[in-house]
User: What shape does this take?
Amino acid sequence: MTKAARQPRTLFDKVWDLHVVTEREDGAVLLYIDRHLVHEGSFHAFNKLKDRGARVSRPDLTIGVADHYVPTRTRALGEIAPDIAGMIRQLEDNCRANDIRLFGFDDPRQGIVHVVGPEQGLTLPGLTMVCGDSHTSTHGAFGALAFGIGASEVAHVLLTQCLWQKRPKRMRITVDGVTAPGITAKDIALSIIATIGADGAQGHAIEYAGSAIRALSMEGRLTLCNLAIESGARCGMIAPDETTFAYVKGRPFAPETDMLDRAIAAWRNLPTDEGATFDREIMLRGMDIAPTVTWGISPEDALPIGACVPDPADLEDPSRASHVQEALDYMGLTPGQALDTIRIDRVFIGSCTNSRIEDLRAAARVLASRTARVPGLVSPGSHLVKQQAEQEGLDRIFIAAGLDWVGSGCSMCVGMNGDLVPSGERCASTTNRNFKGRQGPGARTHLMSPAMVAAAAVTGHLTDVRVLMRSNA
Amino acid sequence: MKPFDILTTSACALPLASIDTDQLIPARFMKRSRADGYGQFLLYDMRYDESGKPRPDFPLHAMASQGAEVLVTRRNFGAGSSREAAVYALVDFGFRCVIAPSFGDIFASNAVNNGLLPAKVSEADAEEILAQLQTVSAAITVDLRESLIRLGNRNYSFTIDPIWQLKLLNGWDDLDLTLSLKGDIVGFEERDGGDRPWVRLADRPA
Assistant: This one.
């Protein structure tokens, strides 16, 4: 064993070191990529390949998933706008021409790429994974090194299965203690982003650690790592443990029998060594985290539901004051207004952040025997999640409450398929971005957990779900 | 890719924080071919009102006619979606450099891959440059070799990763270099296939 290998290392560094093909004099490292996920938006990269007359280098490690543009209200492409259907067919054509495995629109396993990967066992601890989508950080929940890339990099990976990268700095975010009942991974994630800022982790790989993180299910860990990018991080990771191994076991593409045992033995070596150092350490106490919602136009504009909308006049930093004013103007809010008085026009439950079975169960628990005061869309993360939810009767709860139960895809998180929030309307949403115009031109988005969205649907305004939970009991 | 060395031009001030890539190019325009030119969609919903009429007070309109190639803005520019189309929109519009206190990581990487310089300055310097641009109509100079911005009689230093600096100065594309390392990649695959056989998918059903 070399001296370097005996140095205590972080989870991130162990996975990184396993994938170094070569290093350049300037410090850039050629990193091998174990899984490359592509979707309809990857067409720019496929076009670059065509321009060079080249084919995909490792089609077996490339996986196509139709999600960004898929319709959620019909199973017939002939019924939707031709330019949107064209995006889905273009992905099919590119995958077929390059012998790439595709979870296409017609596939019974289709869903959002960051839901399908884990569900199918394509996501495993210790892998490097990339996708032309910033929420690729999601897969870090397994202790994979997973990050979003742009079209030039997608083309580079298609052609070489590798990527030039500079080793980012390491940040550990520790959340210790027990969170209060009703607190979810979404609340933890929004609290972190509000604490460190939407650019707080730029240039860093985050490791989430601590007893409150260990206690999360895989679904919760996926939500947390999904939102790593909203704090600016290159990626977010959680050390694999028994929860991870139990989730992986039996998944269609996961290793089986002896091979699984061998893999798990290797994965047990991945967690950060005692004494390994981080460039930055952030600590939060689980007990301090309350149900959290966003009021503004950046995920860092987040506060506990009991708080009030900030007043730019109270802020000393002129740049921050001008951002808050811009946010209040766009969102149509008054300084000092209590968050739980903000009335909403509709709700959305879905997206790669919060559309897994546990998310749907949490929302359904609040909506059971209740009626939504506003319209809304519930879009499960995959066909398989949809099926499971229907077997559990969750669909009937959503429909009885007055919400629309639709197919799976990115849907109203990004609106590319036409599921849009009308201009000026306010949406309580389980998604990841409250950017101006994200859910449609002029749309106003408030981010929160599935249970909090369900609570807002029931009362018609932002609401502390714990009040409804008490009246449940 | 066109090398970037030294650039003297006019600058456009956009004193807003967290201009994300959804704003740089709204999702609805991303079905288009790059050949159509993405500059027409840059910051579309800020530039045009709901009926498609230009908002007269939006700074991009005036600066377009002056051929500004530098954009100066506030922190967290290019956060969010990994869409490289956001960079296409800036480049096709004519920008070659964005000056800001911080950039989304994926955006910055995409920018460099398209010859667009993400020049990172301190928050105080960004505010001073933005304030200067309100009064001074002088040209701005961005010197990549020296990592220096000159405006009026003031100099401001900016930071850029040395790997990216070299890449931009030379106009390099990584791809040809990587393709020349095919032997190293195959060597890695052979070694790794023995160490981590569970990673393979080739023998799995469709």
The CA atoms of residues 188 and 289 of chain A lie 7 Å apart. The domain at 293-472 of chain A is CATH 3.30.499.10 (Aconitase; domain 3).
